[in-house]
Amino acid sequence: MKITLLAFATASEALGCRELDLEVPDHSRLEDLHQTLIATYPDLIPLWPRLAVAINGEIAKPESPLPPDAEVALLPPVSGGNSPRAELVDGPIDIDSVLSGVTSTSCGAVVTFVGKVRDHHQSRPVRKIFYDAYRPMALSALQRIANTLGGGATELRTQIVHRLGEIPTGEASVVITIASPHRVAA
Q: Which of 35, 58, 162, 170 has the most crowded CB, counting CB atoms within 10 A?
């Protein structure tokens, strides 16, 4: 099926153009397009964690399906900052990926909180926990928290990733990271 890819600012530089018509397999998802694009356009690799991606005018998640004739927009951060991002994941959190999503050479400070599942609760042993959520509401709440942490400052880069499902002891359930040019702001 055919889709149209629109790229803005640094994303268009990485692609070498502002618009591409692409053929993708039927039933493709955004994550499939992501893999194809970074294989074909390796200059997108360092940009991808900071991009917002919209499908037909709506910000999309990696699992979002690509409908036929979709318009997919690659939207880099505005004004040198980064829109606060929130994400729900179903598997282990890649902490390095979360960090790379907010760091840049303009940021001299990175503050990260990692919440992990501990091996006890009220003197009882714990082997694992399970998080479940109504995704749209949980994602909206996390985005509000990320926006609050960012405080509207364009120089702050904020990301929250929360894991859902079964999480064994010792593994991360939430990662919150903020990067800033200076320590005090972070």
A: 162
Cα 31 from Cα 162, distance rounded (Å): 19
Beta strand pairing call for 172-180 and 19-23: unpaired
Q: Are 74 and 6 in contact (CB under 8 A)?
A: yes
**pLDDT per residue as tens digits for the range 9-56:** 778 888 999 899 999 999 999 999 999 999 999 988 888 877 888 898
Distance (Å) of CA 116 to CA 28, 92, 165, 170: 33, 11, 14, 6
Strand partners, 111: 178
3-state secondary structure of 13: helix
Strand pairing report for 71-75 and 128-131: unpaired
**Tokens at 161, concatenated:** 């990733």
Of 140, 28, 34, 51, whose CA–CA distance to 87 is shortest?
140
In sequence order, what are the beta bridge partners of 160?
86, 176
CA proximity to 46, closest of 109, 101, 93, 84: 101
Q: What is the pTM of this model?
A: 0.57
Structure tokens at 91: 């598997």
Which residues have C-beta within 8 Å of that of residue 41, sequence separation ≥ 6?
14, 15, 16
